[in-house]
Amino acid sequence: MINYLSIDLESWASPNLPEFINLKSREKKKLDNGHIKKSALEILRILKKHNTKLTFFVVGQMYEWYPDVVDKIAQEGHEIGYHTHDHEVLTNTSILTKSIKKSKKFLQRYNPIGFRAPRTVLKPNHLKILKDHGFRYDSSIYSDEHEKKKINGILEIPITSFAKVPVGSGYFIGFLGKHVKLLYKAINKTGSPVVSYIHNWQVLRPKGYTFPTKKYLLMNPHYWPYMVDCQGAFEYLVENFRFKPIKNLLQ
Ligand SMILES: [Zn+2]
Q1: pTM for the whole thing?
Q2: Which of 40, 113, 124, 178 has its CA 20 to 30 A from that of 133?
Q3: Cα(51) to centroid of ligand 1, in Å?
Q4: Where are the domains of the chain?
Q5: pLDDT of 209
Q6: Residues 187-216, mean pLDDT to the nearest whole number
């Protein structure tokens, strides 16, 4: 069975918290302190070691910061998908239109056909805009059914949930560690692949001040799995399951 683990590649300072949301690109780059690059290279190292190609949903801003790293991801045979320019939460369509404008160079260079919305917030109206910009699929909703649906001309490839629990989220890799394999096996047994994701900042934990902040954790204690170092669990999955880029589901 082939599964579809993907990487949401973004700065740890991207989650849409008041601390980060108003930072200018160069302020965020300074705060990130090279972590997005370091974590991307570490993920590439692990994937090369296990001869595995995945989809990377990349924030367009990353191409402005480290174009060589995004080039390297593409050159090593991984699929480049799009995760907005600056991890904007798409509460209305004009946010997506502006984001796409800001990512012009990134989009022209890689022509991504896959999209994932930050925080998986997406409305059907957004799909029409994605179609107009050459996208062919979106993977931003959760579903128990591994069933692809065409909405507004875009194929929706759901992230896996199981008994309505969004187990395809990187949260569950943090929560369960290597035991997440039991979920993958149970889902594969039903005849369905797992469509899942993990963040680069979960595979390589940033040092010092980071997301989730201590203040955020006090208010949202259920976020603790996002503090867990997932490098071992990530490598375990890559070593023990077969994965391919999500675009393969279009064939
Ligand atoms: Zn994200």
Answers
A1: 0.96
A2: 40
A3: 25
A4: 2-250
A5: 67
A6: 89
Ligand 1 centroid, distance to 122 Cα (angstroms): 13
pLDDT digits (tens, 9 = 90+) for 202-217: 999 998 767 777 777 7
Q: Are strands 154-156 and 2-9 parallel, antiparallel or unpaired?
A: unpaired
**Residue 59 Cα, ligand 1 centroid: separation in angstroms?**
8
CATH of domain 2-250: 3.20.20.370
Distance of CA 15 from the midpoint of ligand 1 (Å): 7
Per-residue pLDDT of 87-134, as tens digits, reads 999 999 999 999 999 999 999 999 999 999 999 999 999 999 999 999
Distances (CA, A) of 181 to 21, 151, 178, 224: 35, 32, 6, 20
- Angstrom distance (rounded) from CA 136 to CA 143: 19
62 burial (CB, 10 Å; 0-12 / 13-18 / 19+) is buried
Give the distance (Å) from ligand 1 centre to CA of residue 99.
14
